[in-house]
Design goal:
This protein is of the alpha/beta class. The chain has ten helices and 14 strands. A ten-stranded mixed β-sheet has the order 3-4-5-6-9-10-11-12-13-14, covered by helices on one side. Strand 12, helix 9 and strand 13 form a beta-alpha-beta unit. Helix 1 crosses helix 2 and helix 9 packs parallel to helix 10.
C-alpha cells in the first residue's frame, strides 16, 4: 500500500486539531505554534524548511503528514509587464494566476483562482467553457498569493499591494475556502495583509452575497455585471436566470447597508451589444441605489465567441455619460492580452 495515501495534509487541520495532534505525539504545544508560523507566516512548502524543529520531529511530521503545495508549471511574460503563471496542484490539476504590475502607482495586484474550471458558462469567458473539476482548498489559494508575491519581489522589488479574486472559478461557489484563504492571508500572526486591499468578484450569487453581509466580511465586493437589463444579461450570463437584477441589487444593497464596504461593478463592453448610450442609461439607474464604482473593461476575444471589442470612442462616450452624471468610472485597458492573461482569458491554454 502506498503510505502517502494515508497521510493527511497538515494545512487542512485547524489550530485546535493541530494542537491536539502534537499532544498525541507527545510533543509540546508550542511546537504546533512553530509549525503554524512556518506554514502561514513563512509559506513553507516542506517540513525540511522548518529548521527550528528537531530533525526527529521533522521526520515524525514527514511520516504522518504532507504539505500539498502548488508548484509553478509555466510562467509567461507579457510585453506590458504582466506575468501569468500556470500552477500544478497536488492532484495534477492546473490553475492560473496573474500578476498585474503598475509600478508608477506602486500597485502590484495578484488575480487568484478559486476553482479548477468553472460551472457558470458565461458566454464571453474562456474559463466558462471549461468544466468545473473541483474547488481549491484555502491553502491552494493562499499559495498563489505567496508565490506570486515572490515574483513581484523578484521582478519589481515590491511586494503585492492588492488581491483580486477574479481568476478561474466563482469565489462564492467556493465560499468556505475563499473566506478561509482571506483569513489566512490577513491574519496578524501570518502575512498580515489588509482585507481592505482584497476584492472578491462574483457573477452574482444573491444568497451568498447576503451571507457575506451576515458574516460581516471586511473585504471589497465586485459584481461582474456586464449588462443593465435582464434581457441582455440572460443572454451572456446564464446565472442571471436564477439571480435576476432586481434580486441581485437587493442583495448588494443589503451587503452595503451591513458592511459599508466598497462595491464596484465590472462592465465589459461588447461591440453593438451593451455599449450604447441607452445601455449606459440603464446602468446609471443601477448606480443610484448606493455608492458604487464602475470599472469599464475592454473585451478580450476568446476562441469560439462571436463577441467583438467595442470601439474606443464608444467606450469613451459610454464612460463620459456616466461620469458627467456623478458616477465614478475607471476605464481599464487590457493587460496581458498577448499571453492570454487578460480578463476572461484564463483557460490553461498550452
Amino acid at each position: 500500500m502506498n503510505s502517502s495515501i494515508e497521510k493527511k495534509d497538515i494545512r487542512l487541520l485547524g489550530h485546535d486539531a493541530l494542537l491536539a495532534t502534537f499532544v498525541e505525539m507527545g510533543e509540546k504545544k508550542f511546537r504546533a505554534k512553530q509549525v503554524e508560523e512556518w506554514l502561514w507566516a513563512k509559506g513553507a512548502m516542506s517540513f525540511d524548511e522548518m529548521t527550528n524543529l528537531s530533525k526527529p520531529l521533522r521526520e515524525k511530521l514527514e511520516a504522518h503528514f504532507v504539505i500539498n503545495g502548488i508548484t509553478e508549471e509555466t510562467v509567461q511574460f507579457s510585453n506590458d509587464g504582466t506575468i501569468k503563471t500556470r500552477f500544478k496542484l497536488h492532484d495534477g490539476s492546473l490553475i492560473e494566476s496573474v500578476l498585474i504590475p503598475v509600478p508608477r502607482d506602486k500597485r502590484f495586484t495578484v488575480c487568484v483562482s478559486t476553482q479548477v474550471g468553472c460551472s457558470l458558462t458565461c458566454k464571453f469567458c474562456a474559463t466558462g467553457k471549461m468544466k468545473r473539476v473541483r474547488n481549491l482548498d484555502a491553502s491552494e489559494i493562499f499559495d498563489q498569493f505567496v508565490l506570486v508575491n515572490k515574483q513581484a519581489l523578484e521582478h519589481f522589488g515590491h511586494p503585492l499591494t492588492n488581491i483580486v479574486y477574479m481568476g478561474m472559478g466563482e469565489p462564492l461557489l467556493n465560499y468556505k475556502n475563499t473566506l478561509k484563504s482571506i483569513e489566512l492571508i490577513s491574519n496578524p500572526d501570518g502575512l498580515n495583509f489588509s482585507p481592505r486591499r482584497v476584492t472578491v468578484s462574483t457573477a452574482g450569487i444573491s444568497k451568498m452575497i447576503r451571507k457575506l453581509a451576515d458574516d460581516k466580511v471586511r473585504f471589497n465586493l465586485a459584481l461582474s455585471l456586464h449588462a443593465g437589463d435582464d434581457l441582455k444579461r440572460d443572454q451572456i450570463m446564464p446565472i442571471n436566470e436564477q439571480n435576476n437584477l432586481e434580486v441581485l441589487m437587493d442583495s448588494i444593497e443589503y451587503f452595503y447597508q451591513k458592511t459599508k464596504n466598497k462595491i464596484s461593478y465590472e462592465y465589459i463592453t461588447f461591440q453593438n451589444f451593451n455599449d450604447s448610450i441607452e445601455d449606459a442609461q440603464k446602468l446609471l439607474k443601477l448606480c443610484k441605489r448606493f455608492p458604487v464604482k464602475v470599472n469599464i473593461i475592454e473585451y478580450n476575444p476568446i476562441d469560439g465567441s462571436s463577441f467583438l471589442k467595442s470601439a474606443e470612442n464608444r467606450i469613451d462616450e459610454f464612460a463620459k455619460y456616466l461620469t458627467t452624471r456623478g458616477v465614478t468610472v475607471t476605464v481599464r485597458r487590457s493587460r496581458g492580452k498577448d499571453i492570454d492573461a487578460a480578463c476572461g482569458q484564463l483557460a490553461n491554454k498550452t
